[in-house]
């Protein structure tokens, strides 16, 4: 049965102007399926505002999944994007509880549900689909952690084969460390509080700083990349690698060692190269520091 998301507008679609929304932070690496990990409302507003503005400027239909009251969401979108965006024809709200009721939170049903969104946007003449969701809405849609992980992986696959981009927002004050470690590796890009990561065909690219506060999430991203066949980590944009980050790299090596394979850390600079050398990490078996 065809499902019609909430609040389809009546006026012609608008084009995002250059003045709408803040610019993304320097060094933010965006991918088709991005996890935004933040610890403040301001950071979330900056990133999601810039991301939505970019999606609208490319002619994509924006679906905003929410678990908040309608009036709260409407006020926030108006503040971030300007004007009555819900009357634009390009922005649609999706109630997370309704999505769960229609799909049961089952990954297969959710996949079909999202395929319908893509087809609906195409039939309406949009150039693709952009989906925004936060951790609260995601937990409402898929309360089961195992189903949540499958769903996130399905979104990555859908984004690889369709005109689809997805931004999943996670707040460190409300989303548990276990949840964050579970889901970040399922994304093609991660914008964390101090570091950014992007999975490219030839390498995992890391920038920013890895310390005790984010090392576990970096480890989840690294392990997921290795599991998917990545053997090169490009770190020229990495400014700091603390001891916790070094331990994460070491902990990721045993599967490679068992398979007789090597992980390459490419183009370390400055303090990162120094820590690799003084800790002896650069001489570790099955790890090559190059460039």
Automatic annotation (TrEMBL):
Q: What is this protein called?
A: STAS domain-containing protein
Q: Which residues cross the membrane?
A: none
The record ties this protein, via InterPro entries, to: MEDS_domain (IPR025847), MlaB-like_STAS (IPR058548), STAS_dom (IPR002645), STAS_dom_sf (IPR036513)
Name the Pfam families on file.
MEDS, STAS_2
| Bias kind Low complexity: ranges | 12-21
Query: Which organism does this record belong to?
Result: Pseudonocardia yuanmonensis
Q: Tell me which residues make up the STAS domain.
A: 204-291
Where does the UniProt annotation place the signal sequence? none
Tell me the domain of life.
Bacteria
User: Which intervals of the chain are annotated as region Disordered?
Assistant: 1-21
């Amino acid at each position: 049965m065809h499902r019609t998301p909430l609040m389809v507008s009546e006026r012609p679609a608008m084009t995002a102007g250059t003045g709408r929304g803040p610019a993304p932070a320097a060094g933010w690496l965006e991918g088709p399926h991005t996890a935004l990990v933040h610890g403040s409302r301001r950071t979330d507003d900056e990133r999601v505002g810039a991301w939505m503005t970019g999606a609208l400027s490319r002619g994509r239909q924006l679906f905003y999944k929410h678990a908040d009251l309608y009036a709260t969401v409407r006020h926030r979108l108006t503040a971030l994007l300007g004007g009555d965006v819900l009357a634009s024809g390009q922005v649609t709200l999706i109630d997370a509880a309704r999505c769960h009721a229609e799909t049961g939170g089952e990954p297969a049903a959710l996949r079909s549900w999202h395929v319908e969104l893509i087809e609906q946007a195409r039939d309406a003449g949009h150039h693709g689909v952009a989906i925004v969701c936060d951790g609260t809405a995601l937990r409402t849609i898929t309360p089961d952690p195992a189903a949540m992980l499958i769903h996130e992986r399905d979104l990555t696959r859908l984004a690889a084969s369709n005109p689809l981009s997805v931004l999943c927002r996670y707040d460190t004050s409300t989303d548990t460390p276990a949840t964050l470690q579970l889901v970040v590796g399922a994304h093609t890009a991660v914008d964390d509080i101090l570091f950014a990561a992007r999975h490219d065909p030839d390498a995992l690219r890391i920038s920013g700083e890895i310390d005790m506060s984010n090392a576990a999430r970096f480890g989840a991203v690294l392990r997921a990349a290795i599991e998917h066949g990545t053997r090169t980590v490009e770190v020229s944009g990495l400014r700091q690698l603390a001891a916790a980050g070094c331990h994460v790299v070491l902990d990721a090596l045993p599967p490679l060692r068992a398979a007789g394979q090597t992980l390459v850390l490419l183009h370390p600079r400055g303090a990162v190269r120094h820590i690799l050398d003084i800790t002896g990490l650069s001489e570790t078996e099955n790890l090559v520091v190059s460039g």
